[in-house]
């Protein structure tokens, strides 16, 4: 069984923003969309390692601030024609509290 960790509240992350959670396996970016969906990815673009947490969140994607690669928030996959993926993590919101499963779902 995997332990979920409490990382804060939904209000701690601005709409269309991100927060970085430091873990022993590296930084995880937790994103909040305009409609309050929450996603978590490795804070590294698959292209050149840019900090996704500093990117622009739009719809269900984040655009890397370095070279404008778009990454799907639900899968960590790059949007075509770009190829690659970053690690993806399960998150859930329970009564406004965000819980993160620090075990990577995909990389």
Short description:
The chain has 107 residues and is mainly β.
Please provide a written account of the structure.
This protein is mostly beta strands. The protein has one domain (5-100): Rieske [2Fe-2S] iron-sulphur domain (Rieske Iron-sulfur Protein, 3-layer Sandwich). It has no helices and 10 strands. The protein has strands at 5-9, 17-23, 26-32, 38-42, 56-58, 61-63, 70-72, 88-89, 91-94, 97-100. The strands form 3 sheets. It has a 4-stranded antiparallel beta sheet, with no helix packed on it. It has a 3-stranded antiparallel beta sheet with strand order 1-10-9, with no helix packed on it. The chain has a 3-stranded antiparallel beta sheet with strand order 5-6-7, with no helix packed on it. Strand 5 (56-58) and strand 6 form a beta hairpin. The protein is globular and about 40 Å long. The mean pLDDT is 94.
CATH architecture: 3-layer Sandwich
Please, how many domains? 1
Could you say which overall geometry the principal axes of the C-alpha atoms support?
Answer: globular
Q: How many angstroms separate the termini?
A: 20 Å
The fourth-level CATH homologous superfamily is: Rieske [2Fe-2S] iron-sulphur domain
Strands in their spatial order, largest beta sheet: 2-3-4-8
CATH structural class:
Mainly Beta
Low-confidence stretches: none
CATH topology: Rieske Iron-sulfur Protein
Number of strands: 10
Number of helices: 0
Percentage of residues assigned to helices: under 10%
Structural class: mainly beta
- The proportion of strand residues reads 35-45%
């Amino acid at each position: 069984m995997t332990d979920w960790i409490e990382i804060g509240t939904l209000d701690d992350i601005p709409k269309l923003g991100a927060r970085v959670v430091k873990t022993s396996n590296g930084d995880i970016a937790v994103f909040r969309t305009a409609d309050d969906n929450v996603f978590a990815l490795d804070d590294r673009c698959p292209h050149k390692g840019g900090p996704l947490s500093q990117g622009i969140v739009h719809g269900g994607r984040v655009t890397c601030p370095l070279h404008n690669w778009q990454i799907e928030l639900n899968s960590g996959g790059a949007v075509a024609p770009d190829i690659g993926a970053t690690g993806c993590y399960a998150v859930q919101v329970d009564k406004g509290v965000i819980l993160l499963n620090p075990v990577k779902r995909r990389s």
